[in-house]
Amino acid sequence: AALTVRFLTRRFIGEYGDMAEFIYSHSLTVDGREILLHIWDVPNSQQAEDGSSEEKRIQWADSFVLVYSICDRASFNILPLKIQFIKAAKEGQSQEKVPIVIVGNKRDLHHQRVVSSEEGRLLALSLDCGFYEVSAAE
User: Which residues form a coiled coil (predicted)?
Assistant: First the structure.
């Protein structure tokens, strides 16, 4: 949620409490063209629910940004299974590669890091995904 809010508003909010999922709409100009984005932000706690809800989200989306905390090994460890699920659902229907980006958040908390940048890069490379490390706070 912090990363989505930062992207949409350029502001950082540190504490969110219990978050529900939201769909945000945002337009921006890229290479002179106006692009309308719809972002379905799903907190990790809600991603563990039944497969039909997750399947619905996957079918709805054209691309995926999966965010983990560099300070939370568990949030990183679930990514391979999530990505395999997405690819099976999306690429099974067509021959097109589904755009997936892995984002390590909380780069500013390097003193609490438990997942190295190299681990993130290697995972993204092995799963044919993009990779970035960011800080929503910065």
Answer: none
Nearest to 112 by CA among 79, 81, 82, 137: 137
127 DSSP 8-state letter: T
Side chain identity at residue 60, one-letter code: W
**Which residues of the chain form beta strands (DSSP E)?**
22-30, 33-41, 64-69, 100-105, 130-133
pLDDT tens-digit profile, the chain (138 residues): 677 776 777 666 666 555 666 677 888 898 999 988 888 877 765 444 555 677 777 888 888 999 999 999 999 999 999 999 899 888 766 667 889 999 999 999 999 999 999 999 999 999 999 999 998 888
Separation CA 41–CA 2 (nearest Å): 10
Report the largest interatomic distance among the alpha carbons of the chain, rounded to a whole angstrom.
43
The model carries a pTM of: 0.80
